[in-house]
Amino acid sequence: MPAQDPPEAPDSPDAPETANAPDAPEDPPRRSRPPGAAPWVRTRLRAAPGGAVALAVLVLVTAFLAAAFPRGVDTYEDREARRLIDGATAAERNVAVTAQPDPEVRFEDQAESMGGRFVERFVQPVLDEFRAPLRAERGQVSYGVRTKPVLVTDDPWLPKTDGQRPEVQLDARAGVEERARVVGGRLPEPTAYAAEGGGDVAFEAAVTAATAGKLHLRVGSRIHIPQSEGTVVVEVTGILEPKAPGSDYWSVDPLLRTPELRQKPESLDPQRYWAAAFLLHPDSGPALFAGTQSFGPSFEDAGTSPYWNVPVAGGALRGRNVAAVLDALSTLQEGPGFERLAMRTGGTLDISTGAAGLLAGYTGVRDAVTPVVAVAAFGVGAVAAVVLGMSGGLAASRRRAELALLRSRGGSLRGIATRLLAENAAAVLPAAAAGYGLAVLLLPGARHTPPLLAAGATAALALCALPLLAVAAVRRPRPPVRTDLVGARPSRQRLVAEVTAVVLAVGAIVVLRRRGDADGGADALVSAAPVLVGVVAAAVFVRLYPLPLRLAARPAAWARGALGFLSLARAGRAPAASALPLLALLVALTTASFGGSVLAGVADARETASLHSVGGDARLTSAAPLPDGLAAKAEKVGGVRHAASVSTESGLQVIGLSGDLTLLTVDATAYARLSADLGLGPFDAGRLRDGNGGRALPALVSPGVADLIGDGTLGLQSSRGRITAEVAAVRTMTPALTGGQFAVVDAGSVARQLPGTEAVTEARPDTLLLSAAGGLDGAALRELARDSAPAATLLLRGDVTDDLAASELQRGAERLYAAAAVAATGYALLAVLLSLLRAAPERVALLARLRTMGFSRRHGRRLLVLEALPQLVAAGLVGALAGLVTVRLLGPGIDLSALALGEESPDLLGPGGAELRADPLALALPSVAVPALALAAVLVQAWWGGRRRAVQELRAGERE
């Protein structure tokens, strides 16, 4: 019979078509798929749904974390930017625009420019300068014409404080009738403008109920303001109650709502006086300007001028737009915006705001926090990428026979890769979209582009891992070769990769130690330093790990039992591909240890800063002397261990000393116990006692005072008299004063040198410091302070610590860091589990064979545990060591002050600062937990494999 061509295999992908003979009848058009053949993707998903579901769950979690990280950063940055603006006072977030009239313009024209319609006409140009992203709170804009506070005449019914007359401010503000209720009388009428000026001028005004109550005003009351020619008379026609007293309209100038008791700054003696505001009709501006120009010499600073108050809106502010807002504010204050407004007013313009200072502090903290947070992102991202790659490798190894069969039957590499890509896409793309959607749902309001790119990168890696690894495996037929971890020889490519990782790690460490993280921003190389250290540790570990195995296997071969030898032999015959799980494990342990040390360092820095700020666990301070016996009562409060009373005299001038000196008079015994308990400048109480009755008192002094005194003495003029002190001990800080120049003397020694001065008011204790043993009963302390010293201020260390962590930037960064450490640990555990799953069939078959040779199930479980134990224990130790090395190498280049204290001064931390230090718990916990959980997984696998009969496993192996 003539030879015939073999028929084409129906399942062969990309099979070439056979050309028809010229005289043969034309075949019908071929289908893309043979009749009755099932679609590849649907068939594969039905045949192995477990793998697809597991991949989908892994991609969903990873895509969610990848998308949630940048959205989380945006969320806490946005919250902090809004908190700064919304939580600030009305005066701090206000943009105040004040126009001074041009002196070269005619007096009549100046007065006319103060009219209500002219002032209102300028509101829109001011608002037009608030360009996005800078937005104004348009509903709280206020404007008008006002004077500065001026003295009133000595009317008999006006209250006086310390013999001082009240000062009032006249304000012709628009919109009062809409934002206040009239509770008595009526709103004022406008006062006509008198061009000639001089003589008596009468105004009608309204005041708030609070102002009327403090100044004893009622409807019909008149106050008189003298002029050089005549008097300005202001008659109260109405009493008002603000509808929203907390709004910016009433709060930007608190005098409009509530009078204030002020102190004259130029007087050393108490000279307090009342300051209040009177509200005129908005059209009274010209008359107010004309009437106040002829005030007497005491009123030459009346400064009548139009003003516009525009609050900055924080509701729509984004953290990423803060820099643009600062640029817009700068443009408005001294740039093109200022020039445009100045041209419209024609006079001298002044624009000021406190919002720029608030947001400038925000950018400083954010720029300092960003590099530290980026370290966590690089760490967990690297581990997640390794795990996704391992999932593809696991699937490729499980399907190696199937892929080899497809290749042997004519399947092209492109066809195989396309089918695997389509198969993966059915699980990966919906899972990645769901993960991104979940991140958007849980973290709304943030940007979409960075998280979308992160989720897309996750999907791309999960999609391509299996096709690429499968194509590499079946590209050329290779006989099965055992690649033991002990016997494998590193390739040149691996050597190049390891050297590159070492060079990058060294470069990152050198750059970080030299430059630090003070430049702000996230440098990729510097942020990846812990990851690179973990990679280097993994490379070193994989190269050195076979050596102890070989050394331990020799004596184990001569041992009596078989378990030790078999476990070491099995551990040495682990495939060389197990280096990838080790890489993920060590990088994750390094990242988790580094992150834990960062969080521990932040907590320690806050505790130190709060201790230095308070000077103890609690501090009671009063301007007047504290009552006798208060320290004894405080020691009876729950949680109080030691109490020390301190008499403080600050502002002492010493020639040759930079800064003022603070004299602290204490009970040496009690104060020494307190200092030792707190660890703040501990000293021996006996060194402060003047036992020999010498002329000079021994003193505990700061280094600056010690340098000034030397071996001599220092004379101080205190409230008790002149004190001569000599250096007994030198400390950089002491509980009563943790910064500045100080001298601490014993109260008993002072009393012996200056007898009869104990009753001097200024020499009595005004500060009480407490140290706690465990939890401090803050409520009981507050009650004691309220009952014994109502005018005193109580400051608790715990409250200060909470205030230091009030910033959303700090809390958000800490939450992300903690989540990254947990995620890295979880991915490390998953990497170990994937390696166990990869070798699960072979392990189960081994247990079955060993059971046929007399091994019990208990022996099988012990074998699997002993097989995995060397690698996991060694990896845990190396991970802890890598974390310690990372902290030691990178610590000098990382400053945690901004993350710990926010905008507070780093001086609160003392000379040590907030450097990164190794935390034993942060190093030990991940290195112990992950191997322990992995060993638990090995036990579960052994228990699960032991449930099946040995015959079933051996026959399953034959069928395979």
Description:
- The chain is an alpha+beta fold.
- Helices cover 51% and strands 14% of the residues.
- It is built from 33 helices and 21 strands.
- α30 runs antiparallel to α32.
- The radius of gyration is 40 Å and the shape is flat.
- Mean pLDDT is 80; it is low at 1-28, 296-300 and 956-960.
Q: Which terms summarize this structure?
A:
alpha+beta, eight-stranded mixed sheet, 21 strands, single chain, disordered N terminus, nine-stranded mixed sheet, disordered C terminus, 960 residues, 33 helices
Question: Can you describe this structure in just a few lines?
Answer:
It contains 33 helices and 21 strands.
Seen as an oligomer or otherwise, the chain set is single chain
| Strand-residue proportion | 5-15%
How far the N terminus sits from the C terminus, by CA atoms, comes to 39 Å
> What are the segments in which pLDDT stays under 50 over at least 5 consecutive residues?
1-28, 296-300, 956-960
Question: Which secondary-structure class do the elements indicate?
Answer: alpha+beta
* Strand runs, count: 21
Strand order of the largest sheet: 17-18-16-19-15-14-20-13-21
Biggest sheet character: 9 strands, mixed
Radius of gyration from the alpha-carbon trace, in angstroms: 40 Å
**Helical segment tally?**
33
Q: In one word, what is the shape?
A: flat
Q: Roughly what percent helix?
A: 40-55%
Mean pLDDT: 80
